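dumping this here before i forget
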Amino acid sequence: MTARHGTYLDHGATSFPKAPGVADTVGRFLNEEAGNPGRGGHRLTVAASRAIELARQRVASLLGADPERTLLGPGATFWINSVLQGWLGPGDRVVLSALEHNAVMRPLRRLERGLGLELVVAEGAPSTGVPSVAEVALLVAAAPTRLVVLCHASNVSGAVLPVAEIAAAVAPVPVLVDGAQTAGNLPIDFSRLGAAAFACSGHKGLLGPPGVGALLLADRVELEPLVCGGTGSRSESEEMPEWLPDRLEAGTPNGPGIAGLGAACAWLADRTVEAVRDREERLTRRAAEGLAGIPGVRLHGRDEAAAHVGILSFTVGGVDSGELAAWLDREHGIMLRAGLHCAPAAHRRLGTFPDGTVRAGFGPFSTEEDVDRLVEAVRHAASSGVR
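structure:
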């Protein structure tokens, strides 16, 4: 989107602007509904509870999940940690892809040290890092496996992983899906995905505020709580409740953020994720074709025959990626992200570690003019440099 802020192409990091209605909903909650939900029976408490439960219904409906098993909290990182630390035990074996974000890798490395986990990486295709169904299935069959962890799409290249097919192939071994880059960007029906758990951010493709995200749990999946505390229910007990969502939602929730996420999901449901997907796919293809035609520019991790979300990574020969991103912002008002994108494992697999890449991310408000502006600016950088 090009506006007074410039050309925003950093949707892989967070969405901007937010969906229409989000800011108004956040303000209304703070000004008119900001009681503590579930803690009492007065009108503001009831209003806050209703706003949060409405948001829960909207998130669940958009993602094809059971509202009673849709958890709302600080974000994808929190929920990924909740699953990993609430599920895994000493010596457990975990199979994962080579494209995982540090939201997955850092807690796994910590648990590897503390619990002696065995981490087995599916290296995937040489050019993309995307694992095949057969590769993951063979690794899972090689030894007793407690969990498979997969990003739904790489936050570096945008490549989509075949998570539904993998989940079917490795069943009954549970699969945790990091959906930070796909929720709101790809049509998702959790009830058909076959995963045990799906964690997602609220502020990226779902177009909601920061500091909120969701965890979708399949039937019969039980987790130990990562955080314990007050829930407003069963207050006579010093143990966490056994039922969801209370068991995994301790403490006062981020009411404004959750309400804003609900408004964003309502907008997406009306606009349809399919329409957003078509738009982002068209723009990303236009950008890929334009950038690939520039001498010295290389796209990384992209297979035109495979599925992608609205993200692509590129480098310009002889130009530092960090300097290029800074120049694009300074000279052309184009905002995107350079570096390792909190995913050093993915960059190692794609051969772009330690220098990283420049990443462009497109959203529902991006335009063809935005894409063309990026391509022409990169063309100038490739031919004349960024000094």
